[in-house]
Amino acid sequence: MKRSVTVLWLAFLALTVGLHADDLKATDLARALGVDWWTIEIPATSQERVSLGFCIVFADGRRVMSGSMGFRPGTRVRAFCWPGAKPDLLNVSLVSDTGRLATSLRNPFGAGRIGTYAVPVGKTAKVGEILSKGSTAREITPDQVLKEGDFGLMVVVRNAAPVKRRKQDIIHIDAEGAMTLNGKPIEPGMISAALTAESVLIQANAKVPHKKLVIVLEAAKAAGITNVSIAAEE
Questions:
Q1: How far, CA to CA in Å, does 83 sit from each of 88, 90, 103, 105?
Q2: DSSP code of 209?
Q3: Which residues contact 116 (CB under 8 A, 6 or more apart)?
Q4: CB of 96 closer than 8 Å to CB of 75
Q5: Which conformational region is residue 215 in: left (phi greater than 0), alpha (psi within -120 to 50 degrees), or beta?
Q6: Residue 197 vs residues 50, 57, 163, 215, 221: alpha-carbon distances, Å
Q7: Are residues 20 and 120 both part of a single domain?
Q8: For residue range 74-110, what is the model confidence (pLDDT) as tens digits?
């Protein structure tokens, strides 16, 4: 509700001062809503998936990790950061066209957001680069160096081990359209990133709308899987 009011206020302000739509940039709107974002380049490797997650790293080498999720090498992922419901939490999210990781991190100094950008908001960074920095000191340098008392937010490869592929992933769609992958519930937008087998079998109730099947077929295609079969159920 609070963000909806903010968006409406921005729209009203734009009209009253005579701003044109192209005067408002994505970075301006993100800042107004309290959201920082970057594009992350995942290096191209021979692996089928790399596991990415957020990390708070300290000058003394300590690291506080978030959860992680598999993304395809050689693709670009958007990283988002915004204040949590509590002042000592940061909401963070990694988003690509094949998956999304959303989690939170505890801000070491409870500042809501980290103060200085080591990589400018909206710009492209590499995995392992410090995106934002905070410190107990009064001044923080906008670079990749962590001095005593500094900490930084970065996206790291948590586990780059090759994924052992099973022979076949099984996606089941019931009469209500709910989906499971290998027996576990899954949302349609998460399917592509979760597929790890050489082929996919779609078990669909006969009442399932065709658009549900199309969603799964497109997810398999995005994951690079061409061996897909469909089994209809009564």
A1: 8, 5, 12, 10
A2: -
A3: 132, 133, 134, 135, 140, 141, 142
A4: yes
A5: alpha
A6: 16, 34, 9, 18, 13
A7: no
A8: 888 899 988 877 777 888 888 887 778 888 888 776 6
Q: What's the domain range around 19? A: 1-33
Does residue 41 share a domain with residue 28?
no
Q: For position 205, what pLDDT does the model report?
A: 84
pLDDT > 60? residue 124: yes
For the record, the structure tokens of 122 come out as: 């909206």
Last residue of a domain, one of 159, 181, 197: 159
0.70 surpassed by pTM? no
Q: What are phi and psi of 86, to 5 degrees?
A: -105, 145
Q: In this structure, are residues 52 and 75 in contact, taking their beta carbons and an 8 Å threshold? A: no
For 86, the token pair is 């509590």
Write the single-letter amino acid at 44. A
Contact 199, 228 (CB under 8 A): yes
pLDDT tens by residue, 61-82: 788 888 788 888 888 889 998 8
Q: What is the pLDDT of residue 19?
A: 43
Alpha-carbon distance of 101 to 92, in angstroms, equals 8
The structural domain count of the chain equals 3
Q: Answer yes or no: do 172 and 116 share one domain.
A: no
- On whether both 66 and 149 belong to a single domain, the answer is yes
Number of neighbouring beta carbons within 10 Å of residue 121? 16
Amino acid at 105: L
- What residues pair up with 54 in beta bridges, in sequence order? 155
My answer on whether 150 and 183 are in the same domain is: no
The sheet with strand 89-96 has its strands ordered as 99-106, 89-96, 76-83, 36-41, 124-126
> Residue 155 above 80 pLDDT?
yes
